Amino acid sequence: MTNSQWMLAAGLAAVEVLLLLPLLRRPPADKRRWSGERVYTVVLAHVLGAALFFAGGYTQASHGWFSGNAARWKQLPTPFESFTASGDPSLARQVGAVERRAPRPELGSAQGVARWQREMRSYLDSAVIGARAGDGAAPPVHRVLGTAKLPGGVTRSFVAVPGFDGTPLPGYLFVPPGTGRRPAVLVISGHGNGIIETAGLTPSYQHEAALRLARAGYVTFTPELRGFGYLGLRIGNEHLTTANNALMAGRSYKAFLLRDLRGMVDWLQAQPAVDPERMGVTGVSFGGEMSVALAAVDPRLRVVVAQGTEGGVGPHDGYHRDANPGFPHVLCHFFDTPNRHVAREDPFLLVAPRPMLLVRGTEEGPENAAFLALLRSAYRRFGPDARFVDRTVPGGHEYFADPAIAFFREHL
Q1: Is the pTM of this model over 0.90?
Q2: What are the CB-based long-range contacts (under 8 Å, 24+) for 36-44?
Q3: Deepest in the core among 14, 98, 102, 202, taking most CB within 10 A?
Q4: pLDDT: which is higher, 326 or 87
Q5: Rounded to whole angstroms, how far apart are CA atoms 219 and 282?
Q6: Which three-class secondary structure state does DSSP give residue 281?
Q7: Residue 27: pLDDT band by 50, 70, 90 thresholds?
Q8: Helices (H), 77-148
Q9: For range 255-284, the mean pLDDT
Q10: d(CA 412, CA 405)
Q11: What's the longest Cα–Cα distance across the chain?
C-alpha cells in the first residue's frame, strides 16, 4: 500500500465510526428500520472508502501529492543544519583564474579600434566559430517547400537552406513586388516560437518584423535557429538543450548559430532579387543580440538594427551562481565558452563604424549608461560618417518596425 492509501484507510475507519455512533446511541423503536439504516450506512462508508483508497493510490503514484503533504503534516525536520555558504561553491573563482583576457581595444584612435577588430575577428574565426569557406565558394542550394502571394503583392516562400553541417534549416523569404535588385535584410528571430512569429503567421512581440520590412520594399529572409520553432519543440527539441550540447562539444551555442547564419548571408546575397552590396540585419531580444553578433563577424552586413537588447560592459558572468541564479537560462547567451576572450561589449564594438541603431521600449527599464558611453566613444573615433543611434520609444519588450524602416532607408 502507498502512503496515501494507508492514510485514507485510517480516515475511512474514522468516518465509519462517526457514521455509526448516532445509530448505536438511538433506541431501536423500529428494529427493522434501524437495521436497514445501519446496513445502508456501513455499505455507503465502505463504497466511499474504496473510492478514496484507489483514488489516493493513483494520485500518489501520479503526483506524489499526499506523500509530500504527509511530511508537512508530520512536521518532519529539514535535513539541512544551519549553514551559510561562502568561498567558491560554484567554482566561479576557478573559472576566473584560468580565464583568458584579451587586450581591451585602444579607443583613443580609429586605428587602435580597427587593429583590435582585426585581431578579434581572427580569434573568433579560428578559435570560436570556425573558419568559414573561402571567398568564391558556392552558396548553399535551397529547396522551395511552398509559396504564397500575400496582399500588397509580397511573395512569401518557405524554403530549406542547408546549415554548416548540411542540416536543412527552414526559413521564410519575402520578396516585395517589382523587378530589379533590392536591398535585403536578414531578420533573426528572438526567444519564442521562431520564424512563424517574424513571418507574421502568429501574433507575438516580434510583430511580423520580416513581413513589415518586406512591405516597406526590402527583400527579407528569416531563418530558423536550431532549438526554436520548426527545429525546436515542434520536433521535441529545446534551444537550451542545444546550447548545452554546444558547450559539451567545446563551443558556444552562438558559435554554431553564427556558422549557420553566415551561410544564410551567402545564400541571401546570391538571390536574384537582392543587391549584394546593400544588406542589413535586424531582430529583437535574442534576435537583436544575434544580429549584432552576426554583423560583428560578417562585414557584408552594412547596417544593424538591434532591438530589446543592450549589451553591457565586462565579461559575461552567467556561470557564477551569485551573479545569475537562473544559470540554465543564460547558456544561449555565451558568445565564447566560459574561458574566453569575448566581453559583452565586444560584438557591438566590432560593428563600428557601420551604421547601428539600438531601440528599446520605455517599459524595459533603465538604459546601461556605461555601455552606451563606451559605444559612443568608439564611434566618435571614426569621424562624423560613423553613425550610432540609440532610441527609446513608448512600449515594452517588442519589435518596433517604424524606426527600423526609417534607419534602413537612410543607410541601406
Answers
A1: no
A2: 42/16, 44/19
A3: 102
A4: 87
A5: 13
A6: strand
A7: low
A8: 92-97, 110-123
A9: 96
A10: 10
A11: 110
Which position has the grid cell 558556392?
A: 138
3-state secondary structure 37-88: HHHHHHHHHHHHHHHHHHHHHHHHHHHCHHHHHHHHHCCCCCCCCCCCCCCC
Q: 350 to each of 121, 180, 256, 293, 360, how far by Cα in Å?
A: 8, 32, 19, 9, 21
With bands split at pLDDT 50, 70 and 90, how would you rate the model's confidence at 39? low
CB proximity list for 275: less than 8 A, separation 6 or greater: 181, 182, 183, 184
The alpha carbon dihedral of 151, 155, 159, 161 has a sign of negative
Cβ count near 40 (within 10 Å): 12
**The residue to which cell 494507508 is assigned:** 6
Distances (CA, A) of 267 to 194, 223, 274, 301, 350: 20, 11, 10, 13, 23
pLDDT tens track for 346-365: 999 999 999 999 999 999 98
Q: pLDDT, tens digit, for every residue of 144-165?
A: 999 999 999 999 999 999 999 9
Q: Which grid cell is 24?
A: 448505536
Length of the chain: 412
- The Cα–Cα gap between 404 and 210 comes to 11
Answer for the pair 352, 388: CB distance below 8 angstroms, yes or no. yes
Provide the percentage of residues in the chain whose pLDDT is more than 90: 49
